[in-house]
Amino acid sequence: RDVSVGLFRVGAPTNDAAIVAKQGKGTVEETGLARGAVAFFAPRAAGAFVFRLLDPEPPGQQQKPKSERPKASSNVYATSDKLDVVVRTHDDLLDSLKASLQQLEEPGRSRLGALQQLAVVAETLPASLAPKRLTHVGGRSGSSAEKKCREKLRACLARCLDELAKNVPGPLTLATRRRADELPFDVDETEEDALTRERAWSVLSEEDEVAARDAFEQQRVAKIKKQRNDDRRARDVHAACRRLCAAFNGNSASRQWLESAAPEQARRLDDVSTRWDALLEEFWPGGADGVAALRRHYDRADSFFRPTHQPSAQQHGFAWRALDDACARVLPQLFPSENFFKRREEVRRRVEACLNNADVLGNGRRLVLRVFGSSANLFGAEGADLDMCVVPAASEEDTELSSPEVCRRVGEALESAGAKNVQVRDTARVPIVLFADPQTGLDCDVSTHNPLALRNTELLRAYAKIDGRVRGMAYVIKKWAKIRGINSPSDGTLSSYGYILCVLAFLQTVPSPPILPSLQRLDLDWPNPKNPDRPPPERVPHPFDASRDVCLSFHDPDKTGSLADLREIAGRNRQSLGELLALFFRHYAWDVDYRNLVVAPRTACVLPKANKAELDCWPQNPHLAIEDPFETHYDVAHVLKYPKHQLVRKEFMRASKLIDDAAAQRVDPDLVLDYICEPLPAPDQL
User: For residue 375, what are the contacts with CB-CB under 8 A and spacing of at least 6?
Assistant: First the structure.
């Protein structure tokens, strides 16, 4: 079939965003493999790019203006590895600045793309291209290429600041001030106007009135959509300008260019940076009124100032120790009792015997029930449900377990045995039976085919065994999230599983030295030498999605005998639970780049969100995103819409500030955990 090869920036949301696309030409071999070559010039501007194999444009469309072409097909048949284009010479820098300036100045071009492009250049500029000290010889200074770069940089920054000024105040800033009764709400239509419109419609015929109402509704919806698009674009401009400010402040070579070529724009960028609201992700207006409004915003605790200094043992030591003592007091109440696992094992055995006696698999085939989830992963609370999964006995490997018929038989057997509140959900993605155990009252469920959940439980359990601080931190975080109302996926906030993954990722990347490795990346033979004859980990078909496969392999310390080695390495980190908890809140309050990075315990490092957008079609929004360790296409935090993401991050900021206040003796350090976990006021008390 005919195909095209398109060059895109990594994570481009649609195939309409191709920088250039060319028709593919090649030959098909007897094996069915197609080979060919398509020539491309390297992009003029710096950044990360990929090639995509696409459906070609219909004949004759390339001669039309882009605005008149039909939308490109969404099919992507293959994607290349990422290609990084970097600035290495002054000529490269000049080309990038010219491309950005052209995009900023030409009518109809995307200013947002130019802002992002300029930020990439500032982030990646090598130290070798730092501007030389100006030396005047015969009235001339620097090389010709340097002088041209200075001119273009000044022009680019002036256009960038002008573009930002058009979008300040941002939509969320305006909404915040309106909620605080500092600005009036926009009124689309007064009550008098609405009455006049209704009177005008009342004299129309029935058919004309229906048409008039339909037209009015269409106009209203179109206006709302336009406003949402304008708001989204404005917020993207704020985010791109913030990235630009951070790039010039974080790269010494770029900062030198900024100060030597555009000192006036440098002062403006520094001033703008002081008015960045990390929670709203917008810049507040300047001037006396804007600064006063921002101060009132912080005074109301609608947002929080970013700490100016990194925490240190000298400044925060006694606050960390107080927090550690508080955790030691509260954890015995949070950990499940000694009877927790014994009680669940008794229920499991009774249910397993019941199902085998009822011959739910037929023909005398035996089954085994395995516990998964919070009742087995060492992160469960005392009242956790008992999740069980049917797996075949060792001699019954070919037994089909996913049929709805098996699920219905399980339900019938449990009902006959006296189970209460039996609910059979045999059409669910994972067929499941819910019930209450008649003897203990424990809420239980039995699923018929859930290998991913079983493997996930084993992975979390392995992490929990490596170091006691893993469980301790997870239990405190779960308590805090539940009390503060940010632990309910049904309400659009993060699940306990999501918070546990955040804890694991933190312990892999932030403490020094790290406490946890990535068990999925750790060699199966570790700590012994790698076995060169061992085949690579097998990928198996996804149990519920035939179009995907998954890798269920990880280094299991119980099976490899490496638990003592892992504990010894974790023990090299001497940070207390209190210190780690303080750093955890600070990390997710201020240090995570939610717009551009993904939390990923599988890799023990953050992943670029653009890569997930390219490979798994994740949206490139400013929300928290968490990659599932096995179903890597699945975002565990996908339930978080922007208002709820703001709520969760605000709670991280609040907890971090309380710990800073304890270090500064503004609150009692001995009560800091009580303040952090203070229950929300009842709605009628707000």
Answer: 340, 341, 344, 384, 385, 386, 387
Count of all residues that appear for the chain in the document: 686
| Cα(307)–Cα(316) distance, integer angstroms | 13
* pLDDT tens digits along 589-619: 999 999 999 999 999 998 999 889 888 889 8
DSSP H or E stretch at residue 73: none
Tokens at 169, concatenated: 């105040």
Query: Tokens representing 606?
Result: 């953050």
Distances (CA, A) of 274 to 97, 286, 634, 637: 26, 10, 37, 30
- CA proximity to 500, closest of 457, 554, 453: 457
d(CA 188, CA 500): 45
Cis peptide before 532 (omega within 30 of 0): no
Write the DSSP symbol of residue 491: G
Burial of 306-328, coded b for 16+ CB within 10 Å and e otherwise, reads: eeeeebeeeebeebbebbbbbbe
> Looking up tokens 């059979």, which residue turns up?
424
- CA torsion angle for 163, 164, 166, 171 (degrees, to 10)? 140
Instruction: Tell me the CA end-to-end span of the chain in Å, nearest whole number.
Output: 63
**Best CA proximity match to 661, nearest among 280, 307, 325, 313:** 307
Cβ neighbours for 133, distance < 8 A, ≥ 6 positions apart: none
Answer yes or no: is pLDDT of 513 > 60: yes
Radius of gyration of the chain (CA): 30
* H/E element, 96: helix 90-105
Enumerate residues 6+ apart whose C-beta is below 8 A from 650.
279, 303, 304
**E strands present in 393-491:** 420-425, 432-436, 443-447
Using DSSP, state whether 136 is helix, strand or coil: strand
Whole-prediction pTM: 0.89
Structure tokens belonging to residue 638: 């996908």
pLDDT of res. 338: 84
Residues 6+ apart with CB under 8 A from 565: 526, 527
Element (H, E) at 428: none
In three-state secondary structure terms, 53 is strand
